[in-house]
Amino acid sequence: QVQVVESGGGLVQAGGSLRLSCAASGSIVSSNVMGWYRQAPGKQRELVATITSGGSTNYADSVKGRFTISMDNAKNMVYLQMNSLKPEDTAVYYCRYRRTASLNGVWGQGTQVTVSS
């Protein structure tokens, strides 16, 4: 089994920065994909950014140029550096781990990010 735990959310003013962390533990395989997703009240969960164990990244258009995803393979950690935050970035942010060979993933419990105007 794999467990995923997020941390680093909080309240920040518009224009500010936050860094989210995600720790994966358990039966981690070397070939995997980890990602950040978010869900705002009344909206569907959406992709923010993903990164493969090989270092390939993918971003939602809404966060390109402002957010950076990174991975520490040795520690099974993934990070999301969020700069120039906007009120519309307010959401619960979830981390997801999945094996490259699988479509099923493991979700964390989520961490709240609130950006005030």
Describe this structure in words.
The protein has strands at residues 2-7, 10-13, 18-26, 32-39, 46-52, 57-59, 67-72, 77-82, 91-99, 106-107, 111-116. It has 117 residues and is mainly beta. A hairpin with a 4-residue loop joins strand 7 and strand 8. It starts with a strand and ends with a strand. The mean pLDDT is 95.
Number of contiguous helices: 0
Radius of gyration: 13 Å
Major sheet: 7 strands, mixed
β-sheet strand percentage: over 45%
Contiguous uncertain segments of 5+ residues: none
- The tally of beta strands, per DSSP, is 11
Distance between the termini: 41 Å
Give the topology, please.
Layout: E1 2-7, E2 10-13, E3 18-26, E4 32-39, E5 46-52, E6 57-59, E7 67-72, E8 77-82, E9 91-99, E10 106-107, E11 111-116
Parallel strand pairs: 2-11
Antiparallel strand pairs: 1-3, 3-8, 4-5, 4-9, 5-6, 7-8, 9-10, 9-11
Task: Write a concise keyword list for the protein shown above.
single chain, 117 residues, mainly beta, seven-stranded mixed sheet, four-stranded antiparallel sheet, 56% strand, globular
